[in-house]
Amino acid sequence: MKIYNGSFSANTLRVWAVALELGLDAETVEINVMGGENKSDDYRTINPNWKVPALGDDGVII
Ligand SMILES: N[C@@H](CCC(=O)N[C@@H](CS)C(=O)NCC(=O)O)C(=O)O
Hints:
Blueprint: E1 2-5, H1 10-22, E2 27-30, H2 41-46, E3 54-57, E4 60-61
Parallel strand pairs: 1-2
Antiparallel strand pairs: 1-3, 3-4
Bound molecules: glutathione.
């Protein structure tokens, strides 16, 4: 599972807290929100609303 992460994102920290509490095996994919990477075409295919975090893998994203 991947967590598409924004470094300064409180919402991302909440997802990480739950992932750590549950002992989930999560990989971090850093998205440079301050640099606008969340609005790139590549990231929009992962999360069309441009927000971080996004969680998932293999085309299944929540
Ligand atoms: N949980 C909500 C909110 C997520 C959210 O607001 N994320 C912020 C960072 S904490 C974000 O991605 N901001 C970037 C932007 O709005 O361009 C969602 O996924 O729609």
